[in-house]
Amino acid sequence: MGGLAVRVQEESQRAVQVELPAFADIVREHQGMVFSLAWHYLHDRALAEEMAQEVFLELYRHLASIQSPEHLLFWLRKVASRKCIDQTRRRAFWPKFGLDDIPEPSAKTRQADPMLSGALAKLVASLPEKARMLVILRYQEDLDPSDIARVLDMPVGTVKSHLQRALGVLREKLARTVGEIAL
Amino acid sequence: MSNLEDDLRIALRREEPPADFTERVLARLNQPPAEPTWRERLAVLMRPPRLQWVAVAVIVSVIIPAGVQYRKGERAKEQLLFAVRVAGTKLHQAQHKVAETGRMGTRL
Predict the structure, then answer these.
(1) Would an 8 Å CB–CB cutoff place A175 in contact with chain B?
(2) How many domains does chain A have?
(3) CATH code for position A125
(4) pTM reported for the whole predicted model
């Protein structure tokens, strides 16, 4: 029975492996989300691209276990978050960037102040690992605390308290930064 | 700063990767697996049951001879200390005799 199950899984994996065009469509659909998570977290374009590629390579190997489009989205966010956090731990990486590295705005949902956005992105990147990912998932992906808790395997209460604390820190640092710029 | 959350949404909006991102991912899928690094080779070597044989080899070739040498050294040290103690006792006895003989000569 177990052997049969394994064979069925192998068959489905083989079937999945043949469908490269379909996989390419999945990559195209979600590359912005995965790349942005890595970019906002790592603040290194080359590293973010490398990381995003690794996420999709891992997805390709696990494609047979994906059950639905919602599951795919959840899986991508979870793996991308884990890889980003692992990356900073492994290399004791800390973002090194200037305001020039902050990309120009492309969306016009609200009157964007590039300087403010740049300063905010820089401040987000200076948050501790988990808090940084929480803020990115909350404001890039617009996830609510219960979804973030599922992605990061954290209690919802911890997510809420970390978010509140991170917002407090950002508010305080931003006030100081804006003050310095005004001077 | 009541608009902080809106500002964060703008600052953290999604970005698209380079235009050829998908092609690069697909190209990596077709690449042969990379040569294992020295760390990976070491990890394979240390994986059981090879690890057990490595441990046995280390014990046999290093730890056991070192233990034997240590015990030999300890025994030699004990023997030397015993010899020094015996020599010390004998020397003390000889000094005592010399002193006694000297005292007897003075009395005569």
Answers:
(1) yes
(2) 2
(3) 1.10.10.10
(4) 0.63
